[in-house]
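General statements about sequence and structure are easier to judge against a single worked case. When preparing material for the folding task, we compiled for one chain both its residues and its backbone structure tokens. The amino acid sequence and the backbone structure tokens for this protein are reproduced below:
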Amino acid sequence: MRCGREEIARRFEGWFSRASDFEVMDSRRVEVGPRTRLSWRFRLSRDGQSREVIEQVAFVSVGPEGISDIDLLCSGFLHEKSAVASFSDDAAASCSLR
């Protein structure tokens, strides 16, 4: 991903500015050395009809003016029914390993 506050903000606006019915399903923040790991899962609609889920994980560097660098991994926009089933399967698998 790109660097710089304005470039990062423009990229996010491009992805999510058309979204409606925006719901945060989960979010987390963890310090990892000098960087911060952020993760979030959203449920949204980009066409006003179908519901999608997207999950992203980012490692960010924060400076005096906010986020200066970001490395991001994205699930892509997934149809809600298949995404929720997939996330549920992942949670069950991780619990059974403990």
